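SAMPLE LOG
Freezer: B-3
Tube label: C17
Construct: single chain, 212 aa
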Amino acid sequence: MPEWIFVKITNSLVSYQTLRLVAIAFCLSPLIRLVWFGVSDQLTANPIELITRFTGSWALIMLCLTLAITPLRKLSGWNDLLKLRRLFGLFCFFYAAIHLLTWIILDHYFDWNAIYQDLFKRTYITVGLLAFLCLLPLAITSTKAMQKRLGRKWAQLHQLIYLIALLAPLHYWLHKASKNDTTTVNVYIAILFILLLWRIGYYYKLRHQARP
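STRUCTURE (predicted):
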């Protein structure tokens, strides 16, 4: 199907506002589910582990969606999809922040000595913290005002998303590898690998076309 026909059909069936509302509802659904688990006493015998695992998984899902927006836009020609990239990116940060705070507050009760020891004893925690520290400036500078203020530096800064796409699944894999349970994380790695490979191919194509 030609791109312009796809865009015309899509725009006639789904407005951007409708798409945005659906995306927001989807992004909030894990939080609503987690709250429901809490109020209905369904957080299992180890609620801290469940919250940590749940929020970490959803941070990865939001990361995958953030990186998938550009390929989907290029393949479909539906430019409105790009407006959802910031939304998914912010929810990636949101769930990653809950993931980290659960570890600091609920798991360690602000015991900074124990936290410090964990950072240097457990490689997966070190890698996870590095991923979050890379994500933090992206969330802070996600507004249009910051984009305008930083100019070209904004785009350079947001290249950190590719480093995050390497560190986040590595954090998960290192944790699961110690338990010989890497099936789920391997799926995330495969998805992110495909998305990054597409980016590399796309930018190589652009550079090749730009040559005289």
